[in-house]
From TrEMBL:
The keyword Nucleotide-binding applies. Residues 4-236 form the ABC transporter domain. One of its GO terms (molecular function) is ABC-type transporter activity. Transmembrane segments: none annotated. One of its GO terms (cellular component) is ATP-binding cassette (ABC) transporter complex, substrate-binding subunit-containing. GO terms for biological process: carbohydrate transport. Keywords: ATP-binding, Nucleotide-binding, Transport. PANTHER family: MALTODEXTRIN IMPORT ATP-BINDING PROTEIN MSMX (PTHR43875), OSMOPROTECTIVE COMPOUNDS UPTAKE ATP-BINDING PROTEIN GGTA (PTHR43875:SF1). This is Sn-glycerol-3-phosphate ABC transporter ATP-binding protein UgpC. SUPFAM superfamilies: MOP-like (SSF50331), P-loop containing nucleoside triphosphate hydrolases (SSF52540). Pfam families: ABC_tran, OB_MalK. The keyword Phosphoprotein does not apply.
Length: 358
């Protein structure tokens, strides 16, 4: 087990106008589960591949524990990677697949069998050990891929979208199992996904990347409650946070026919006529005053209902989403007023720079 450190790690591909990963500074604690998340092309896989030694580092360096691994070949890094496609050898049995790396490393047969048996028991795949991968379901293959990483007892696990080939239900089950297993083993893990729900539910901390640049790294709750900028605010949360550019008035920002109080410091800091107010759907409630909204769609999800409607936000028509009481949601076509329920749950951003003000 070991910590992982990216120090200004940068990767520039020839022919690209900007680095795929740009001056990445990130420290993953020993035993921590860190999730790298962001939209397609943001540099998640490239970051992971640099750590694995599968991609060159053009600038900066990478450490595992105290050791500088920047120029070490992949084999010498003592890491195990779980890929999206599992990369199992089709001609080998499950047991052979799981034990292969140990065999190459010269581990004796009885040790290999013991470690494979232990990992198989942990993953509940003992009964498949003599099967070939093609005789397994997607979920079982996924576990074999995990098992292959576990038997090596590496310093670090690297996982690149390991659940993306599973159906929705299995993905939910498996994400819990992987998170539990990681905590039981205590192995430092860097996990890549584009799925924000996976990131929020699995990670001790989450690092959000955009265009190769780290936007924020924080515990899931903190990131949800205090996103550092407009990008993170819009990226995490489903349905997304409502982001509205609103005029600054005395004491707050104009919100329909009312004024929403936001911190004076934030507005002084903004030094602008408008700010972007962020309100999560669960913090918007039907009220007698506030923003006037024409209800277009009411989405009833059982425990929750979401209302999607159109509002005139300071002269621009915008879609607004609010969580409604599922027992008595507004009706389609109705005109309602929405107002923030909890002023302390409001987010204020500078519109130009996107930076959080309060
Ligand atoms: P995805 O979720 O789609 O896998 P990602 O966040 O993992 O995306 P990367 O695969 O790291 O993103 O890619 C980051 C950027 O680098 C993208 O613009 C991509 O096109 C580019 N890139 C990745 N690999 C190469 C390569 N071998 N040659 C040139 N450009 C590359």
């Amino acid at each position: 087990m070991s910590s992982v450190t990216f120090e200004k790690a940068t990767r520039v591909f020839t022919g690209q106008d900007r680095p795929a990963v740009n001056q990445l500074d990130l420290h993953v604690e020993d035993g921590e589960f860190l999730v790298l998340v962001g939209p397609s092309g943001c540099g998640k896989s490239t970051s992971l591949r640099m750590l694995a030694g599968l991609e060159e580092v053009d600038e900066g360096r990478l450490l595992i524990g105290e050791q500088d691994v920047t120029d070490l070949p992949p084999k010498a890094r003592d890491i195990a990677m779980v890929f999206q496609n599992y990369a199992l050898y089709p001609h080998m049995t499950v047991a052979e697949n799981m034990g292969f790396a140990l065999k190459i490393a010269g581990t004796n047969k009885s040790d290999i069998s013991k470690r494979v048996a232990e990992a198989a028991a942990m993953l509940d795949i003992t009964e498949y050990l003599e099967r070939k991968p093609k005789a397994l379901s997607g979920g079982q293959r996924q576990r074999v891929a995990m098992g292959r990483a576990i038997v090596r007892s590496p310093r670090v696990f690297l996982m690149d979208e390991p659940l993306s080939n599973l159906d929705a239900k299995l993905r939910v089950q498996t994400r819990t199992q992987i998170a539990q297993l990681q905590r039981r083993l205590g192995t430092t893990t860097v996990y890549v996904t584009h799925d924000q729900v996976e990131a929020m539910t699995m990670g001790d901390r989450v690092a959000v990347l955009k265009d190769g640049v780290l936007q924020q790294c924080a515990a899931p709750r903190e990131m949800y409650d205090r996103p550092a900028n407009l990008f993170v605010a819009g990226f995490l949360g489903s349905p997304s946070m409502n982001l509205m550019e609103l005029p600054v008035v005395d004491g707050g920002v104009r919100f329909g026919d009312s004024v929403v109080p936001v911190g004076r410091d934030a507005l002084a800091d903004a030094d602008a006529k408008t700010v972007t107010l962020g309100v999560r759907p669960e913090n918007l409630v039907v009220s007698s005053t506030g923003l006037q909204v024409e209800v277009d769609v009411v989405e009833e999800l059982g425990a929750d209902a979401y209302v999607y409607g159109r509002a005139d936000v300071d002269g621009t028509e915008q879609t607004i989403v609010a969580r409604a009481d599922w027992r008595k949601p507004p009706a389609k076509g109705e005109t309602i007023h929405l107002a923030p329920e909890d002023p302390s749950g409001l987010h204020v951003f500078a519109t130009e720079s996107g930076r959080r003000l309060s």
